[in-house]
Amino acid sequence: MFPPLPNPTVQPTPAKFGEADLIRRSASSVPIPATMQTPVAKLIDVTKCIGCKACQVACLEWNDLTEKVGINHGVYDNPLDLTPDSFTVMRFTEWVNPESQNLEWLIRKDGCMHCADPGCLKACPAPGAIVQYSNGIVDFVHENCIGCGYCVKGCPFNIPRISKVDNKAYKCTLCSDRIAVGQGPACQKACPTQAIVFGTKDDMKKWADGRIKDLKSRGFKNAGLYDPPGVSGTHVMYVLHHADKPEIYAGLPNNPRISPIVELWKGVAKYAGLAAIGAFAAIGVLHHLVMGPNRVSSEDEQHAEELTGRRS
Amino acid sequence: MSSDDVASTDSVHPGKPVVVDRYTTGARINHWITATSLVLLAISGLALFHPVLFFLTGLFGGGQATRAIHPWIGVVLFFSFAGLFLRFWRLNLWKGADTTWLRRLNEVLGNRDHEDPDLVEIGKYNAGQKVVFWGMTLLIIILIGSGLVIWDQYFAEYTTLTQKQWAVLTHSLAAVVIICVWIVHVYAAIWVRGTISAMTRGKVTGGWAWRHHRKWLRELVTGKQDRNTGATPAE
Questions:
Q1: pTM above 0.95, yes or no
Q2: Measured between CA atoms, how close is A163 to chain B, in angstroms?
Q3: What phi-psi label fits residue A251: left (phi over 0), alpha (psi between -120 and 50 degrees) or beta?
Q4: Extents of the domains making up chain A
Q5: CA gyration radius for chain B?
């Protein structure tokens, strides 16, 4: 058993991290923090998940959200997808293992992966609407959010959702407010099987190693850790029994990375675009300085008068 | 009277100087609604395109307001430009002479086009104006199309994420190009003196028409003559 995080004191404590610990800030730059926080991570052990959705409930509770009563779509997924209120959703997949012919019930807790290289932050045009702390948490700052939906396009995992109520983007905060005072995320706290554990990223990797060894000894030879390098690793990691094919877990991307389309849009296009506009304006000014205006001469007016006079 | 070089509402008034009606009041209002929309779209769009220009959202009442209003201005532009398109498309059809004009663009840019007999007999629009017209048309179609795909407030559920990514890239690149086309359009109107009055008061001088759109002027004059003489035989 992973040693549970101790309950916090009831005395108010100052936040362990804040504005001074930002390593990235959307559409703006931040000074390098004086001290770096220890990277944290949430480890979701898919192999231990029983699909009880306590994490979903805890997430709604802690974040003071109410998901509207939905529709039974004939599957366990409820709601069917992430929403501006449901930052996390259990995704259920019935998968027939081609080797054993066993029906395996794969249950993955979906939500923000807190990428080390966050596509949402890269795409965001509003200064300070998305921030990344040195401990790895990627957070949305709602007072700066303009609701454009660029973060949705930038995210390799299709996570953020735009609220129709206040037109702002929402996603898992990794309970940054709880972690700031030494607690673990609400979902982790609620998980009855320790399928969700929380700690430093190093500790989580070590814990995952033990789990993977255990799974391998039980015949899951492809068991492994999902910490995709395409986004420089994530601060939400999965232990998968079939880490060689993450896509069977309700479409978990095999090699997620910020889309090259987004890289082009937020990279070369941004600078080349302004340069092109500037160049056209400069060429105009230069042309006028060198060639001067194209003026109508008095002869032109005379010709016109002759033409109209002769004909009318 | 209507031909590929003259609009039925154009007319010439002899005098000193000769005055030529180039745009009706309706066409001018239509143009300025389009122009205002385009400028507002460029400002609000650029604000979301590059962080150094984000401060421009202040002109629209902040980021949220800019995000909300930009697509609606786009809708206004689309319909307003559609009006211009219906008014002007026939006179912007490409002709052989337009290719010659483009090939000799260096003479035009060197203010020497009025010395070249091949370049003076121009209808209501020269090849440069036609390129602007068709460029604007094509780009506005691309921009409204890609814009609808990324108008998440109303249309988010109709497209996939990859389609939205392509749309947002296309939208930004097309926007850059249309701003460049707009710079050409505005600069040409400033550089070729006597042009702006066409869109402000609707009139140009005969000398301007002679120098830049001689075929247009000739046809207007002969058309007037045709009208004067042609009124009687029917009776």
A1: no
A2: 9
A3: left
A4: 19-257, 267-311
A5: 21
How far from each other are the two terminal CA atoms of chain A, in whole angstroms? 104
Closest CA to B36 of B85, B74, B4, B91: B74
Active site residue B50: no
A170: helix, strand or coil: strand
The domain made up of A19-257 has a fold known as Alpha-Beta Plaits (3.30.70)
How much is the ipTM here? Answer: 0.93
Rounded to an integer, what is the distance from CA B141 to the centroid of its chain?
14
Residue that is written with structure tokens 């650029």 in the block: B46
**What digits encode the pLDDT tens for the residues B54-94?**
999 999 999 999 999 999 999 999 999 999 999 999 999 99
Chain B residue with minimal CA distance to A264? Answer: B169
Residue A41 β-bridge partners: A199
pLDDT digits (tens, 9 = 90+) for A104-157: 999 999 999 999 999 999 999 999 999 999 999 999 999 999 999 999 999 999
A305 interaction partners in chain B (CB closer than 8 Å): 14-18, 206
CB B181 within 8 A of CB B142: no
Beta bridge partners of A139: A131
Q: A28 is written with which tokens?
A: 């703006």
CA distance A156 to A254: 11
pLDDT at residue A312 in the model: 45
Residue contact B54–A269, C-beta within 8 A = no
β-sheet bridge partners, residue A140: A130
Residue written as token pair 């609620």: A190
